[in-house]
Amino acid sequence: MAAMLLTLLPAGIRASALSDSGTKTSPYVVTTYDELRAALDKSGAEEAGETYIKLGNDISSEDTANNYNFNLSSEYEQYVSLDLAGHTLARTTQSIDETLFDINSNYTLDIDDSVGGGEMTYYNSHGTYAYLFWNHKGTLNIHNGTFISPGTNRQCMELWGGTTNIYGGKFYSDNIIIDHGAGYLYIYDGDFTATKGTNGNYVTGLYLSSNNGNFYIYNCNVYCTNTVTDNFTGLIVAGMGNASSNALKDHIPSGTAITADGKAVALADKASGVQGRNINLHDPTDYNVKINITEPANGNKVPFTYTNSNPNVELMFGLSWFTGDGYMCDENSVFDFDSNDYYRVTFRLRANSLYFLNNAKVTLNGREIKGERQTMDEYTYYYDFSLAKEPEYKLGDINADSSIDSKDAMLSIKYAKKGAAPKDEEQFKRADVNKDGVLDTKDSMILIKAAKKLITIE
To answer: How far apart (Å, rounded) are the C-alpha atoms in residues 191 and 76?
Structure first.
């Protein structure tokens, strides 16, 4: 039976029922702190699986309950997706709980904010330290959202194992944002802001205190907003096991552009940090991926060769071709557009990081295409080829009777007054005679003149 630490609720805390199924298409929509605990409890109650959770409104808990945090532990591999969905998750407590989320072996916690404006805050007035996240041996992925740890010695993260990937988000705390004691840390993007400092005296925007040096920074912005003291450091790495890994240069891509307070910084070989109130690190990697293939033509064999412009990404398994009805083509297949409406080509790209693929501009024969994420570092892309011509239409001939007359003008007036709407996209295009994407009186005036033969619509 799975060892979940959420199962026993503190005295006086009410368990909550859940609706929905917790799947990707039907996530648990939670509206209370207890419902979120119950949803996370379900994620570890069975064998390996995936659980999807979404905040349905702002959630806040003000309590003194011990062991009331989100302590994630299971005997089986678990993946949990938590979508803030534009809402706030906040806990203010005076208890023994040092962290809001405690991530242990076998757990992957994936945090995103699909709407924007989502926020997570944790404040504990009891004890010496308090953290939003404590990663022991699990995996923590943060994609978006705002994360706040107010109070002296209240840090955003304590990392003592596993892997932590920061793909974006905004992080605020009085001083140290991340304490990296063990495990692997990758910062692909994000804003890190120190707002006060230890006892208001010393400010570090992003302090990476690491025992093993297993971290890498691709992009980030670091801010120190305390203007009371000049005793501040923007970005620093320290406490590593050997002198060579104490150099910031060893933990950023070659050629990284660094600015401090608007001025370019030439980083010395052994420099452990950068001083400034506003620091930016920018990865120079080329994220353009150009895939070129032979375009399909009737009677030709289906092509499986391609070129890939970017060595930072791998096209896995080559190309796959399918007919419109889902039949998979092989090397002996021949294009027959008389029998099939279209042919679909698919391919999967893998890079050394999800950050790369999240930011990649992928084109197929010059056409930009969007991918669908499959795993943490793989995206699938597809494009449909068709030889069917798009329907021809005459601008202004709204009713498609091959003439522009008072009938078309009357339809345009109805559209402008919202008394009617085009039946499809083609009719919309016929009515949008000035091609501004809006059906209004400007189109009606043009059509009235055209119906009276005063002007010709081209």
So the answer is: 34
Q: What is the largest CA-CA distance in the chain?
A: 85
Helical axes 441-451 vs 406-416, angle rounded to 10°: 170
The set of residues, in sequence order, having a beta carbon less than 8 Å from that of 446 and lying 6+ positions away, is 396, 433, 434, 455, 457
Please state, in angstroms and rounded to a whole number, the distance separating the CA atoms of residues 230 and 347.
53
Closest Cα partner for 312 from 346, 362, 369?
362
Specify the residue for token string 């064999």.
301
User: How many CA atoms does the CB half-sphere of 326 hold within 13 Å?
Assistant: 0
Residue 407: pLDDT over 70: yes
Mean pLDDT of the chain: 82
Read off the pLDDT of residues 291-308 as tens digits, 9 standing for 90 and up.
999 999 889 999 999 999
- Per the DSSP assignment, residues forming a β-bridge with 378 are 350, 375
Separation CA 332–CA 300 (nearest Å): 10
Would you give the distance in Å from CA 47 to the centre of its chain? 27
165 SS3 class:
strand
DSSP letter assigned to residue 105: T
Q: Order across the sheet with 313-323: list the strands.
A: 313-323, 343-351, 378-385, 372-375
Residue 214 is predicted with a pLDDT of 80
Of 80, 82, 76, 84, the C-alpha closest to 57 is 84
Reading the block at residue 75, the tokens are 């005997």
Contact criterion met (CB below 8 Å) for 300 and 335: yes
d(CA 104, CA 88): 24
Distance (Å, rounded) from C-alpha 113 to C-alpha 85?
Answer: 5
Q: CA-to-CA distance for 439 and 432, rounded, in angstroms?
A: 6
User: Is residue 86 within 8 Å of residue 56, measured between CB atoms?
Assistant: no
Alpha-carbon distance of 239 to 186, in angstroms, equals: 18
* Contact between residue 203 and residue 235 where contact means Cβ atoms under 8 Å apart: no
Q: Which residue has the tokens 């702002």?
A: 58
User: Which of 292, 299, 274 has the alpha carbon at shortest distance from 345?
Assistant: 292
Q: What angle do CA 390, 396, 401 make, to 5 degrees?
A: 75
Spatial CB neighbours of 421, under 8 Å, sequence gap ≥ 6: 415
Is the pLDDT at 324 greater than 80? The verdict is yes
Strands (E), 196-286: 203-210, 215-217, 220-224, 232-238, 257-260, 263-264, 273-274, 278-282
Can you tell me whether residue 186 is helix, strand or coil?
strand
Neighbours of 220 (CB within 10 A): 23
Distance, CA of 51 to CA of 163 (rounded, Å): 19
Percent helix, percent strand, percent coil in the chain, to nearest 5: 10, 40, 50
Half-sphere exposure of 83 (CA within 13 A, CB side): 17
- The answer, yes or no, to whether residue 283 has pLDDT greater than 70, is yes
